[in-house]
Amino acid sequence: MAFAGSILGAYLVAELDQSNWEERFKVEQRKTIIDKRIELIERTSFMFSKSSLMEALEANIQGAIDIINIERECLASGASADTCIEDKDNNLAERLGKERYAINSELLSTLTLSSIYFGPKTKEALRIIIKAPWKSSAQDRQVLINAMGNELNYFESDL
Fold it and tell me: Contact, 48 vs 156, CB < 8 A?
């Protein structure tokens, strides 16, 4: 009888340890996900704060393209390069385009990760914004940030 009690006791202790480990693992997983969600909220907010920069980049890129077109027309008319080319920085449009690309990539990757890490309210807000994120209204952006904040502790199923 003592032997059976020892085996039962050992089994119960092992079962409790397993259960305790699984619970700690779930808590750690949730903590990791919540930390990532907080990071994504911060990144999203930061990226949307760059909307004025994106507008300026667009305007400067268009200006650089216009200058290049004017210079080409001038050169095509037979004038010398010294007469036609005022700005010797021919790579301006390319550099600005690369900067715009980097900012766009960062925003789109942030929004994509947000669609993975958050729940249905965030996904719905993203559905509206993702079409033209830089042209989205301040209200739509705030709806997204609010949805992300509200779903900070959202978990579809037990982890």
Answer: no
In a domain, 157, yes or no: no
Q: Give pLDDT tens digits for 109-120.
A: 999 999 999 999
Query: Distances in Å between the alpha carbon of 51 and those of 41, 46, 48, 58, 91?
Result: 16, 10, 6, 11, 23
What is the structure's pLDDT at 4?
A: 62
Where in the sequence is the domain holding 110, given as residue range(s)? Answer: 2-150
Report pTM: 0.76
Amino acid at position 125, single letter: A
- The total domain count for the chain is 1
- Rounded-to-integer distance, Cα 26 and Cα 15, Å: 17
The model's pLDDT over 37-53, given as tens digits with 9 standing for 90+, comes to 999 999 999 999 999 99
- Would residue 158 count as lying in a domain? no
